[in-house]
Design a protein that fits this description.
Length: 349
């Protein structure tokens, strides 16, 4: 009997035979008590009494797949005599149950360096129906093509695998809509949230935003020489950057906690006559294990200031002159030099 059969439906059970006559012959049928069926006695035109099975309550194959009942035929004798028959009722399935996922929402974490083909998650759905009505195929619901290119689901096993490489710095999570469909066309949905775990795959990046070039040698200490920006797109410790300055230069690095901007300032006075330019290297390291580093080279020319007076080659000249030397004769040639540059070093006597 199909589980969709409506209450009130009747099923012919046949006739019990009794060789006696009159009141000693077959009089009634009785059915073992149950919650679904009753038996009614019907009489044919020839007077024979037969039994009909009547459905009183809707069946549900998922709660009871079969019933075994005893039908009893009784005569009217004193005492009455009876005969029994076994009724085996198989409840056949209809597709009245959709698939059900084990969870309405799945959450899974995947490292961003997972290779294409890596397993993301295995989902499962069940169907209380039987046969083809319980055969489930899996697939993705309506989603952007970007997601369909990134992930693949096995239609038979419900296994989700990675098709393309992940990038935490591009997308930190994905929400997949998964469908389970039985052969009868009923569908269930669930969501799969894929969290991308960051790995230390990016080195710190140093950008020189501004350099005061050249720097006057008479610039006071504290003068800003360069503005730098340091960033690391990784997260957590992988994106926490520390900086150090190398190279012999009268410069120091100033930074504030939580800021990605670094400032190079003069730590002591410059002297162009001693060093015409300074070269230094800024090294940025992140907190990953192992750490990744980035470097930037900065060249700071020093421009001259007129901070040096001319100096004669000698502090005193002694010249002996004959008294008959003609007017216009050269007595002595003196020289002076200035270590400054350009017009600052041009000497006039």
């Amino acid at each position: 009997i199909n589980e969709l059969t409506s209450p009130g439906a009747r099923f012919y059970l046949g006739i019990a035979e009794d060789g006696d006559v009159g009141s000693n012959s077959l009089q009634r049928y009785e059915l073992e008590p149950n919650k679904y069926f009753a038996v009614e006695v019907k009489k044919r035109q020839d007077g024979m009494k037969f039994a009909e099975l009547v459905l009183r309550r809707a069946l549900d194959r998922e709660s009871e797949q079969s019933l075994r009942l005893v039908l009893t035929a009784l005569d009217g004798g004193e005492p009455p005599r009876s005969g029994t028959a076994q009724l085996y009722i198989n409840v056949t399935d209809i597709n009245d149950n959709p698939p059900e996922f084990a969870q309405e929402r799945y959450r899974v974490s995947v490292r961003e360096d997972a290779l294409p083909g890596s397993l993301v998650l295995n989902v499962s759905a069940s169907d209380a129906d039987a046969g083809s009505n319980a055969r489930i195929t899996y697939g993705f619901g309506k989603m952007p093509s970007k997601l369909l290119q990134k992930f693949l689901v096995d239609s038979e096993r419900g296994t989700i695998t990675l098709q393309e490489a992940l990038d935490f710095e591009d997308t930190q999570s994905y929400t997949l809509l998964l469908e389970a469909r039985d052969d009868g066309g009923l569908i269930a949905h669930c969501e799969v949230e894929v969290q991308v775990l960051d790995v230390n795959d990016n080195a710190p990046e140093i950008t020189v935003m501004h350099v005061s070039s050249p720097v006057p040698e008479n610039a006071p200490t504290g003068t800003v020489v360069a503005l730098l920006k340091v960033k690391d797109p990784d997260s957590g410790e992988n994106g926490q950057v520390s900086c150090e300055l190398s190279g012999e230069a009268p410069l120091s690095l100033v930074t504030s906690p939580g800021s990605s901007y670094k400032v190079l300032v003069l730590a002591k006075a410059l002297d162009r006559e001693e060093t015409a330019f300074h070269e230094l290297v800024l090294r940025a390291s992140d907190g990953g294990k192992p750490a990744r580093t980035g470097t930037a080279r900065i060249r700071v020319p020093v421009v001259d200031a007129n901070d040096n007076a001319p100096m004669f080659s000698r502090s005193e000249y002694t010249v002996r002159v004959p008294e008959d030397l003609p007017v216009g004769s050269v007595l002595v040639t003196v020289t002076a030099t200035d270590v400054d540059e350009g017009i600052n070093g041009h000497v006039i006597y």
